[in-house]
Design brief:
Layout lengths: L1 H24 L10 H7 L14 E3 H11 L1 H4 L35 H11 L10 H14 L8 E3 L23 H4 L25 H8 L9 H11 L1 H12 L40 H8 L6 H9 L1 H4 L13 H12 L5
Antiparallel strand pairs: 1-2
Helix pairs in contact: 3-6, 5-6, 10-14
Length: 347
């Protein structure tokens, strides 16, 4: 019986081996070898050391033109984002905050990721429509939005590796398996607490008027002070109307600037206490353009006249400013928003 069983096993093995050889040599008629041109079209990834970068170059100036035409509708004119689209600039020193702002300048560790993603996937809905030089230019402009390069910078393969991203050292290998604090930790999988309560939310929604007021730094008066506020309003008369109109006009500004008691720097500086100051002198703001700093050094003071001229046409008043805001047309809007900004007279 054992001899018979061994014979069956041996013959089965020989059959399987013969079938495997036949199957390996058989062609199923699926697909074909990729051509070198097809492989080249797919092999477009760029490595952190610059491997894979094609020849080409692009300037900040050219990148701004392309960006405003093809990118700003989603990412904002200053990279501040529109709606729920991702922001590309800002967020410096926020990664340790409860609500960090992760942008190209604050979070991304390698410039190659920027170039590769723009080249591979942008603009949204029309991916890979940009030329190599266009991608270099847009990448250069995104760097400029984050104050990592100057306005006259030209990015190319030769200087690509010279750009050091601020958060390059913020990434490290996951070492939880080897770290003592994790290996010594007792993990509870069920019935870990007798009572469970919600102590925080994963995301601040800012959906109520009170939350929105606090977030904007223009908190509404409490019930306790409503009588006082009403009395002040009656005494102020037309000034209250001017203030309310100014607040409405300031909505055009608040994507980049903040105002009020809890205001912080954003894409642009907060505007608390700017009156009487030289241009480019808000404490703690590090992203001024060279043109604004130079204007301040040459004596530009933010008074009514200079701020009015600036709001009419920022680029005409300070040539080379990073502000792409075209300006306000109505004199009454300019008067109102200046009055509103002056209402926050403390930095």
């Amino acid at each position: 019986m054992l001899k018979c069983l061994n014979a069956i096993i041996i013959s089965s093995g020989l059959f399987f081996a013969a079938w495997s050889d036949a199957a390996s040599s058989e062609k199923f008629g699926l697909g074909r070898l990729a051509t070198q041109q097809e492989i080249k079209a797919w092999n477009i990834d760029i490595r952190p050391d610059g491997s894979g970068l094609p020849k080409g170059s692009g300037s900040v100036v050219t990148g701004e033109e392309i960006y405003l035409e093809q990118c700003a509708s989603c990412h904002g004119e200053f990279g501040e984002a529109v709606g729920r689209w991702p922001a590309l600039s800002g967020g410096e020193d926020t990664l340790k905050d409860d609500d960090p702002v992760k942008t190209v300048g604050s979070y991304w560790p390698y410039l190659s990721t920027v170039w590769d993603y723009v080249n591979r996937a942008m603009p949204f809905g029309n991916a890979q429509s940009l030329s190599v030089n266009d991608v270099y230019a847009v990448t250069a402009y995104i760097l400029n939005l984050n104050d990592l390069v100057d306005d006259d910078f030209v990015l190319s393969r030769s200087n690509f590796k010279d750009i050091a991203m601020p958060n390059k050292g913020g990434f490290y290998n996951d070492d939880r398996k080897d770290t003592e604090i994790w290996s010594a930790r007792e993990v509870c999988m069920s019935d870990c607490k007798k009572h469970v309560e919600i102590t925080a939310r994963a995301r601040v929604l800012d959906v109520t008027p009170e939350q929105e007021a606090k977030r904007s730094g223009r908190e509404q008066p409490t019930n306790k002070s409503k009588a006082e506020t009403s009395q002040e309003a009656s005494l102020a008369g037309e000034n209250v109307k001017l203030l309310l109109r100014g607040e409405k006009v300031f909505n055009k500004c608040k994507s980049c600037h903040a105002l009020g008691e809890s205001a912080k720097h954003k894409i642009g500086p907060h505007l608390n206490g700017i009156f009487g100051k030289a241009a480019g002198q808000q404490t703690g703001f590090k992203r001024y353009s060279k043109s604004i700093l130079l204007a301040g050094e040459n004596g530009l003071i933010w008074d009514n006249r200079n701020l009015t001229e600036f709001l009419i046409s920022p680029k005409k008043k300070v040539r080379g400013t990073k502000m792409v805001f075209v300006g306000l047309k109505k004199p009454e809007d300019i008067e109102a928003v200046i009055y509103y900004i002056r209402s926050a007279d403390k930095e």
